[in-house]
Amino acid sequence: MRAVSDVGSGAELPAQLRDRLGAILGAQGLVADAGTRYGESWGGAFTAPPSLVARPGSTAEVAATVAACAEAGVAMVPQGGNTGLAGGAQPTRPGCVIISLERMRAVRALDPVNDTITVEAGMTLAEVQARAAEVDRLFPLSLASEGSCQIGGNLSTNAGGTQCLRYGNARAMALGLEVVLPDGQIWEGLRGLRKDATGYDLKQLFIGAEGTLGIITAAVLRLLPRPRDAATAFVAVPDPAAALRLLDRARRHLGESLTGFEVMRRECLDWVLVALPGTASPFAERHPWYVLIEATGQGAPGTLAGLMAEALAAALEEEIVSDATLAASEAQRRRLWALREGQAEAQKAAGFGIKHDVSVPVSAVPTFLARADAALAAALPGIRPFAFGHLGDGNIHYNPLGPAGASAAEVAALRPGANRIVHDIVADLGGSISAEHGLGQLRTEEVRRYKSPVEQAMMAALKRSFDPKGLMNPGTIVPA
Ligand SMILES: Cc1cc2nc3c(=O)[nH]c(=O)nc-3n(C[C@H](O)[C@H](O)[C@H](O)COP(=O)(O)OP(=O)(O)OC[C@H]3O[C@@H](n4cnc5c(N)ncnc54)[C@H](O)[C@@H]3O)c2cc1C
Questions:
Q1: Where does the FAD-binding PCMH-type domain start and stop, copy by copy (predicted)?
Q2: Which of 40, 85, 90 to mutate to test the pocket of ligand 1 (most atoms within 8 A of CB)?
Q3: Which of 5, 132, 231, 337 is 20 to 30 A from 186 via CA?
């Protein structure tokens, strides 16, 4: 825990602004002794310089806080659950105000007939899922960080997660937004409409904007029927090409009900078994790659297990898969998912890694992996493979570990070279250097190499028109 003065007492801000924020927010709305909770990102990769933390409790308070900062010319950084992996929720310079949405967590409306829930931005993803379940509905966004991340953060990063294959990313789940603009005006766009052809779809500009165009304060979210049936399998495959053939098989047998198709390398499973007590491999032998497949649907319980078993039997016959296990109970299903959801912890246990959150067309994943593995092995001898992710979306967390025994500083020195090699291959295959984590402070400079001047100019123009003073999360997406 850092000292109060390190976190930010606000001393570096104009005294007038501190007084004004104190008057707007009251005692519980301003934090000067926040410890590492707001100032440090998940896992400690990014640390904020001294910054005051404002915790508004209503949209009106967010608007007044933003207006006060804008008038004082002070930069603001919106923060949700602070689980982001690109450093977007940490200021990059001193004298900023972090605006945390954590006190805004009410359900404003729940309409099971319209299949929508309207929630404030600070509600955690797990709470949204739980409130939907109370009325027998599904909110299908699902991430390993769902207990802490907030819906405002999910929308601002356009989060993907483990069910994106079937339901799409956060962008597909919002029907309307309420946003505080960088000058403090409130845009009330909380419409629960499936159809609205009245001009530009403004909400989509704020989704995936990482807090650079305004602060999302509430959202109307789309709900779906809750599945009655599920089937989950853990499968060993010889290589990524076989995993893709299995995806095709699974689609043919399970159709629309295919919900998740996750992969991990052998080394990733090995590290989960080390890092997470109580985990066990479903197989006696080690295999090069593993796939976790899940299907969910509305049919009679057991229907999907039958279809999944058929798909696996056919795949075994075709020698696409080497071994497979089908969960026979909810407890077994949870144990299989723990192997996938434990990847972030496994990576921490394994040592210092070089992270890449890339996407390529699904068909190009095996080529990407083969080319990246070969190029890194040649350029950086001793580098160790570590890759997992959402194969069904073409999104791989390609996070090789530094050579055994290398220090944090030694691995950090390898990072720029490794990034260049991996991201150039991704670009060559028509991919993206950030599939679901966003650019944050991590990739904002780097992405300029991969975006055309026309694309960069459009983004800069958009930023200028919403935030001419450049005060809303400066240095993210568009260079400060
Ligand atoms: C263990 C683990 C697993 C993860 N798995 C996944 C995964 O499968 N898929 C995935 O996509 N991500 C994943 N993530 C990353 C992260 O959880 C997501 O990016 C999440 O959407 C961030 O939400 P948050 O509330 O924590 O946002 P923060 O980290 O607080 O903020 C992220 C960005 O959004 C902005 N922001 C936050 N709230 C608002 C708001 N109300 N208005 C405007 N801007 C705002 C911030 O300024 C910042 O730029 C994972 C992270 C961890 C730690």
A1: 46-226
A2: 85
A3: 132
